[in-house]
Amino acid sequence: MLTGKIRSQVDEVWNTFWTGGISNPMEVIEQFTYLLFIKRLDELHTAREKKANILGRPVENPIFAADEQQLRWSQFIHLGDTGKLYEVIADEVFPFMKSLGDSNSAFAAHMKDARFTLPPEKAGLLTKVVDMINDIPMDDRDTKGDLYEYMLSKLASAGQNGQFRTPRHIIKMMVAMTAPTPQDIICDPACGTAGFLVAADEYLRDNHPEIFRDNELRQHYNEGMFHGFDFDSTMLRVATMNMLLHGIDKPNIVNRDSLAEDHSEQDAIYSLILANPPFAGSLDYDATAKDLLQVVKTKKTELLFVALFLRLLKLGGRAAVIVPDGVLFGSSRAHKTLRKMLVEEQKLDGIISMPSGVFKPYAGVSTAIILFTRTDSGGTEDVWFYDMEADGYSLDDKRAPLEEGHDNNNIPDILTRWQNRAAEAARQRTDQSFLVPKKEIAKNSYDLSINRYKEIVYEEIEYDSPLTILAELEALEVEIQEGMAELKGMLG
Q: For residues 461, 465, 470 and 471, what is the CA-based torsion angle, rounded to 10 degrees?
């Protein structure tokens, strides 16, 4: 969690951009990210220098050559001259950053159109922003992630960009539930800023340190593990830099319209999909991948994305994805076909119903998390349902953190119950979580809404009879009249 001081520092940077004439939220995010990335490059080089000094060896894979030291953040930050600082960053550091890495890499592909948009007359603004960023402590990995999340939360004024932001604590919960392994090939087909991929990386760092001791695992981690698709050029740049900032050398962030391109069976290589795809609106049939329409004929993006996830997963691959509640109980043929497919042909593991305020201030839509495994041969026996009522934050537009406790935050309970689902069989339908047999779901037209199966116990409240209530009212009236008469006597 970011401290109030760091939040204030980020707000100050944002306001400085704004008052300096850079008012497009996405442009601010992009320029801010470039500067964070430039700073991070220096930090990584410094860490390699320290390691080399300890081992008494030359620097391994140096980022800056001997004649490029003036391009390091720790060097140009001390220039003092506003005009000179602008020239170094705009004319030397930024072109250097764009040229990093393999010319065939995703980074090079997405950065070729990157633009440093601060004009020379904004040199003073650049100096202010550089000084502010320099004062923000970013040594801790969680702080960097939270900082980025907080920056993205400021996109509220750009309505459609809300789709790119899933609350970080929800992402971390979904990652923990799917428990990525060092062998996984992870994909987010609507990656936005790569929040799910970054969270998966953090989970692996915390739970599988063997990745960094085994050369084969490390190569897979750096080059083959993380995949993200998007078709927005700004998102692709931000996502790629976000991954590199978190230490993944060659993330596979690809320019791809996931719903518009046909997907061959060769695409079914992913063992884990984590996603919160955009689910506003519908597509034209002509613009939609024909292989997806063969699975489920619909224009609704939320249904097409679930069909896509099944296409992209390899056999045994698992997924945790966010969908609008309508996917769970929609009555159209496409809705029912897709749900039946998940239950009968694949292995539907769980449904978490989330409160409608989770995505505020962007939207109040009710959503759910679907967890499933691709088998192509069934396997669903019992589906685990959980009714999430609180996620640790207020469910209004402010989304302020709440005090710890189950009533304020169900996420720890969700993880505990999910990891011990065998014990869930003993729970009643009146509990917050329970199992529902496949046969019962089939009888209910494959309705996956928790309200279809949850039992609500109503407490009986006994009221006095009307005659008793009237007698009490009459007694009160007499008491009031006596009091008024006494008051009149005192005044008379």
A: -110
Contacts of residue 125, defined as CB under 8 A and 6 or more positions apart, other chains included, come to 16, 17, 20, 21, 22, 118
**Torsion sign, CA atoms 82, 143, 113, 102:** positive
Residue type present at position 390: A
pLDDT at residue 460 in the model: 75
Count of C-beta atoms within a 10 Å radius of residue 30: 20
Which residue positions in the chain have pLDDT lower than 70?
1-3, 101-104, 106, 138-146, 148-149, 152-164, 261-266, 280-289, 361-363, 492
Contact 135, 122 (CB under 8 A): no
Report the distance separating Cα 155 and Cα 166, nearest Å.
12
Q: Measured on CA atoms in the order 332, 338, 340, 343, is the torsion positive or negative? A: negative
Which pLDDT value is given to residue 282? Answer: 60
Structure tokens given for 291: 């292989």
312 within 8 A of 346, measured Cβ to Cβ: no
DSSP string for residues in 278-320 = --SSB--GGGS-HHHHHH---SBHHHHHHHHHHHHEEEEEEEE
pTM for the whole structure: 0.82
Report the alpha-carbon distance of residue 118 to residue 22 in Å, rounded.
Answer: 8
